[in-house]
Amino acid sequence: MPSMMPTTTDAKMGREYWRSLDDFAQSPQFVELVQREFPSLLDDVVTPANRRSFLKLMGASLALAGVGLAGCRRWPDEKIAPFAHRPEGYVPGEPAYFATSMDLGGVGCGLIATSFDGRPIKVEGNERHPINGGSVTISGKTFSVGSCDVFAQSGILEFYDPERSRDVVRRTLEGDRPSARAAGLDEFLSWAKAHFASLKANQGAGLAILSQADSSPSLHDMKARVAAAFPKAVWHEYESISRDNEIEGARLALGNAYRAHYALDKADVVACLDSDLLVAHPASAKHARDFASRRRSIDKTMSRLYAAEGVLSLTGANADHRLAIKSRDVASLTSMLIAALAREGVTVLGGEAIGSVKPVPGEQVAAWVNAVARDLAAAMRAGGFSLVVPGPRQPAAVHAACHAINFALQNVGRTVHFTAEPEGARQSHIASLRALTEACTAGSVQTLLILGGNPAYDAPIDLGFGEAMLNVATCIHLSLYDNETSQRCDWHVNAAHTLESWGDTRAWDGTVAPVQPIIEPLYDGLTPAEMLAVVLDDEVKDGYSIARRWFSSLHGEGMGFEAAWRNYLHDGVLPGSAWKREDVRLSTRDWPAALSRLADAGATQEGDEVVFTPDPAIYDGRFANNGWLQELPDPIGKISWDNAAFMSPAMAERLGARGNDLVVIDSPTGGNPLEIAVHIIPGMADGVVNIHLGYGRTAAGHIGTGVGRNAGLLRGSQGMGFAVAHVEKGRGTYELATVQDHHAMDSKVTRQGVQDRLPMLVRQARLDRYEQVGKDAFFDEKHVHLPPIVSLWDEYNYEASGAHRWAMAIDLQTCIGCSACMIACQAENNVPIVGKDQVLFGREMHWIRVDRYYKGRDVHNPEVVFQPVTCQHCENAPCEQVCPVAATTHDKEGLNVMVYNRCVGTRYCSNNCPYKVRRFNFYDWHVEDPRAEGLRPPRVDIPDVVHDKAFRGGSEVKRMAFNPDVTVRPRGVMEKCSFCVQRINRVKIEAKNAWVKAGGTGSGSSRYEIADGAVTPACAQACPTQAIVFGDLRDPGSRVSALFRDPRQYSLLEELNTKPRTRFLGKVRNYNASLKPIPAHGDAEAAGH
């Protein structure tokens, strides 16, 4: 459905909250969508036309029940084979937990992997890890948490991906035609031994090694050994998402390469300059947790966040004040901030050298800069602390200037400290890859070993690395997939996955964490360290021995070694391994002149700008074959299975483009023009086009190949972050799968209009007004108070029944919209993917969704609010009242539960749910091909037969990812959030067993007790800010009970008297009065409750 454009770009249209531009403009398509009785059906293509006519006559829901009756299917017999000899200490059905970690972009992430009957099924953050774990205080109760991002959560599906490379592949030329054949690992090892022995005899002359960034200490140890054995070999490193500007900026400002560490929990004022600090930083889990700690208390201690950026990032969306500005103008903005600070009495060392820089035009820009400068200076004078953070896209001079600003504000040693940069000695990634490309082209490289990565796909287009590879006599590529780079190599060697490997990683602060296998390797893959052992023909060849050898270099082989090693593996961290803080001094020799040149250049450049950002789901393309991530909606654009040209409404109007229209983008720093669909994003800077990286793959696997457009065609070595671009409207359209308007809580459920209720769905207030009037700050004088609700029948009293009253509280104040909860729920509850075609029909299966709302009457500069929505577990549930077979019912503890084998698929419950959180299995999603074109009639085959007919993803390997505690739902069955009832039951069983072992009633207690926090649903466990809290209302001291008493709490659509067990806490923003005009009472539209 194409996005509608407002009739004029400068009109302040009278809508206060809106889901999308279609909602803002109230397009006929949107109005029809939200009023459909069966919105998930849309244009019915499940059955032929004559079938549809029958459904119209007989009732859509009963007909669909006939298609999906669970009782009309034959299920195969399953056999359970017992152990001949049970392993010692093994209890069937009991999960085991292992501390491990993974590396992404050269930074480690601490994890806890859950193993069930010997196979990993779930990963969580390690609460002992300094980045992914820590303590959180909610309602006066402090507890430890561990969280991880969507990349780590989705590692389970990647591990069990049937298309993950299983074999070594040998490619040769037969005449003029290339051929590939599967070659065993033994064949490669035999060849490699002789080949690398001959290279060693020549001291490695002609050998080049290209690796990804990797934090592993044991790998670095192997790298040093290779350098010693092959002194003439050359090592190169390349990452498409690089921190090179940050490293060089520290060198400019501090005289050496240092790594900055931020403490957002100590900062009263934070200014992010083109920085997505809360989500896209290597330490974003810690940043988000620390940021939330200063936003949870609704008083004057709340921090204030400013953001200046061209794209609309999640950090910008959570800012109290956001300035939309081109990325190339941030250098000028930084110089303006330095000048404004000087006017406030804060002198930035070296700042006088940039006084003549041309400022960014516009009253709004000047007002924003002056307000930020006053706030920063006021915080310093009051004895508080602040923080100014540049983004990785910004050039080195901007990073240097921000370091100087933090020194001037006395933030160094308080909200920011420095450690030595471990990557400071290497070449920049672009310079290193350019040198390698030139060497390959010149013929000086005879053997090229590539450890991971995919440079043939993601290298800068102007370097021509993929073509240069063809000049090398022997290319070897170690990777998880037989990808674009592998297909240009003589040897593709399948890599081992993190979950089946031995190794180690270093976190952002330097803390070492182990990588240990959760299962025996599924295939004979090698880790990078093991591949280097092959190169060396080292006597220590396996990952376990390599990791232990490095560990022994720290502890020696004495009597305490084994104990230290086992504690290290158990805890998942090595105590005392973090880098020590460095005492740094500011150097102003180079950065003022560099910043002045950059700012002047940005001010004089004309034309539009294209900004390249890592995709929130598939990063730089390395996760492209992960269906969970492909179907995860972009947190801002809310599109899945694609990327698009994000642009502002004003830019789209200037181009004459609407949503889904094709535009052609060309950049002088890139290669060929790129044709890509438009997706209009309110709040983006005019003249900025944002394209996510990682799409347009040609050899990603069945799931990822051909999805989206390759932004790398525009990305040159001189414009890796952003570049000048020429944009013009193309011909034709391309349909994007946009989910924001799906499952909208906007159906005809009350007498109020959609717009009148939206302020009630997402409550937001100003801090100053909230301090004056409390919860009334969420409303205005026109607020309509509904009369008391009177039930038509005697309602069941759940307060008097059941041993527990489970409930959930979701704090909009601390939700940053990262979507980690969605992937965690999908992994925990066996939620399937459905593919783009089905998403277009509104059939995505996520049990929890994160709605994004815009606020404001100006479509060009709205605020953004995120709201996770899942089943509300209503005590007076509308779904239960209409189910003809009692497939959805209530238990005594207040859970709205599903009995899958009763469900006949009428979908009455979904139609009657005002929150639109129920999902129907139109197909056997787990065995269908999500990339198949079009739709097929439902099958009645035995599921195993369907597996055999389906694509390779329907193999036994894929099924190993299922959580055995959760039923895999078949076609024709309704499903929804269960509050992770399997986790509740497991904790209850464990608590009862412990109570019985302690003597039962003889121990002095009449029943077992469950401690607050013992039960944590997957969504709450993954949340980096702990915005989702779960617990027992029977315990008045529990966190969830305290949040239910918070003045900000409210229920969705409470006028319906559904009595939800899920409540929300309204969002409060800490506005700067000089920037945010305070509206008079009555300016807003009416709202009801």
Kindly provide the name of the CATH class of the largest domain.
Alpha Beta
Give the overall shape.
globular
Residue stretches low in confidence (pLDDT < 50, at least 5 long) are 1-14, 37-72, 747-751, 942-954, 1078-1089
Number of strands: 42
Going by helix content, strand content and strand pairing, the class is alpha/beta
**Proportion of helical residues:** 25-40%
Number of helices: 34
Largest sheet: 7 strands, mixed
* Strand order in the sheet with the most strands: 8-7-19-18-17-9-10
Structure notes:
- By secondary structure, this protein is of the alpha/beta class.
- It has four domains: 17-67 and 743-999 and 1008-1069, Alpha-Beta Plaits (2-Layer Sandwich); 168-237 and 427-571, Rossmann fold; 244-420, Dimethylsulfoxide Reductase, domain 2, CATH 3.40.228.10; 606-738, Barwin-like endoglucanases.
- The chain is built from 34 helices and 42 strands.
Defining key terms:
1089 residues; alpha/beta; Alpha-Beta Plaits; Rossmann fold; Dimethylsulfoxide Reductase, domain 2; 4 domains; 7-stranded mixed sheet; 6-stranded mixed sheet; 34 helices; 28% helix; disordered N terminus; disordered C terminus
Briefly characterize the structure:
With 1089 residues, this protein is α/β, with parallel strands linked by helices. Helix content is 28%, strand content 19%.
